[in-house]
Design brief:
With 466 residues, the chain is an alpha+beta fold. The chain has 16 helices and 12 strands.
């Protein structure tokens, strides 16, 4: 399971001073061809013959937000179940066939989508498409109680390994629980509880699959070195006969006020050696005009070594070992902007929080400069161009815009929207969205320091406790 949108995927471009042109005349344009099958499957092609590889990417518009009370963890459990064979594919044979063909594959689950992807040599496109079609159309005949029990145990062990027994491992379920009020669909755990996983039955699994794993709730993207005519014939042959679904239940109202309305706080005692602070702000949803100002604000605060937090907290004041900022990139209701800072040895949680807040307040009071906005947009653009050179990443982003907005061509508008962000918009976002009434502090402290008076003061600071 990858964190996908909640993880910032950034690479440092070096420390050489950049002289940035504010608005380049042109920017990279991704070739896109889109069509829809009669069963509702939305298909996107993007040719690129630079390398003899092709990526197949399938997004289903279902994630943990679609789960009901008492049956959490189903979306992630299904990510595992789909690799356990279908009517014409044995358990784990999907992996074997793709790897034998020289390809790579995986899947991931997030709050509002699940995706499956393969990157294979160009002449192996057919096997990747056939495998995805077979499990979309014929998974249930191969479903057994033994497979369910096995994968339930696998997911339970994954939770123990990657969440419960991993330093800071619970952050990505505690932060949404703190920042999205119950019963908002983003509130509950993505990976689910042991109780809910153990309660899952074959009937539950069959109902979930029939509801959400249908062509009219999916997007298929093919990117890289392929012939569009041949690819379309394969897609129509393999996916065309699969019947559309009977409809899925709508999500409840996802809207939220623009701010939390108070300072939220949770202190977690954990088996960690250094304090870590996750400071979150409610932020505009992905795709809205204000989202781009929020994204640029995050880049100014914590995108690589030249960012404010890296410069002041890591290098100048030496209170942190690392500092980043990123958005979750959620398109429904409200997003969150997250500042993630780990303390240096000897720095208390109180000192760490005070230093981070000082930088947030300084941005609000003093504002940002044109140079900072230009740098942030340039770095975002560099990452965009670099990622679009990779067939797998291009396919994934096209699926993302097709799934969330029904239009993969929006990918070609992204840099124009970033380049339109102004200093005034960033300063307005900082003033209105980074204030005391829109801060959620999730602080991890080492167990052997939690009995100190300082930590007690941190936990009892008079703010709202989740």
């Amino acid at each position: 399971m990858k964190r996908s949108c909640c993880q910032a995927k950034h690479r440092e471009v070096g420390t050489t001073r950049l002289y940035i042109t504010r608005k380049p005349k042109t920017f990279m344009r991704i070739p896109i061809d889109t069509f829809r099958l009669s069963n509702g499957l939305l298909v996107t092609f993007s040719e690129d013959h630079t390398a003899p590889i092709v990526a197949v990417n399938l997004w289903y518009h279902v994630g943990s937000a679609n789960e009901r009370t008492g049956r959490t963890g189903f979306a992630h459990l299904f990510e595992h179940m789909l690799f356990q064979g279908s009517e014409h594919v044995e358990a784990n044979e999907h992996f074997e066939l793709v790897q034998r063909a020289g390809g790579t594959l995986n899947g991931s689950t997030w709050l509002d989508r699940t995706n499956y992807f393969e990157t294979v040599p160009s002449n192996q496109l057919a096997i990747a498409l056939w495998l995805e079609a077979d499990r979309m159309g014929a998974l249930l005949p191969a479903m057994t109680q033994q497979k369910l029990d096995t994968q339930r145990d696998v997911v339970s062990n994954e939770r123990r390994w990657s969440v419960d027994n991993q330093p800071y491992g619970t952050w990505w379920e505690k932060l949404p629980a703190l920042t999205y009020p119950d019963p908002h669909p983003f509130h509950h755990s993505l990976i689910g509880s042991f109780e809910d996983l153990n309660a899952a039955s074959l009937d539950d699994i069959a109902h979930f699959f029939a509801t959400y794993y249908t062509p009219d709730n999916a997007v298929l993207t093919i990117a890289g070195d392929f012939d569009p005519g041949e690819a379309r014939t394969l897609v129509e042959s393999y996916f065309g006969p699969i019947p559309r679904g009977k409809g899925k239940p709508p999500l409840p109202d996802m809207s939220l006020p623009p701010t939390f309305g108070a300072t939220l706080r949770e202190v977690v005692q954990d088996e960690v050696s250094l304090p870590r602070l996750y400071l979150a702000f409610r932020s505009p949803a992905l795709g809205t005009d204000e989202y781009y100002a929020a994204s640029v604000t995050g880049a100014i605060l914590g995108m690589r070594k030249g960012s404010r937090l890296q410069r002041t907290l890591v290098r100048e004041r030496e209170v942190a070992t690392d500092a980043t900022a990123f958005t979750f990139d959620l398109p429904k209701g409200a997003d969150i902007l997250v500042v993630d800072v780990t303390a240096r040895p000897g720095i208390t949680p109180e000192r760490l929080e005070a230093e981070v807040v000082k930088e947030i307040d300084r941005m609000r009071s003093d504002g940002v400069t044109q140079d900072e906005v230009d740098r942030a947009i340039a770095l975002i653009g560099t990452d965009f161009v670099a990622s679009m050179q990779l067939a797998g990443e291009r396919a994934d982003q096209l699926s993302r815009f097709a799934t969330y907005f029904g239009n993969p061509a929006l990918i070609n508008e992204q840099m124009d929207r970033y380049r339109s962000v102004t200093v005034a918009e960033v300063n307005r976002f900082a003033t209105t969205r980074l204030a005391d009434d829109n801060r959620a502090f999730l602080t991890y402290v080492p167990r052997d320091t939690t009995e100190s008076s300082d930590s007690a003061d941190l936990a009892d600071s008079g703010t709202v406790t989740a």
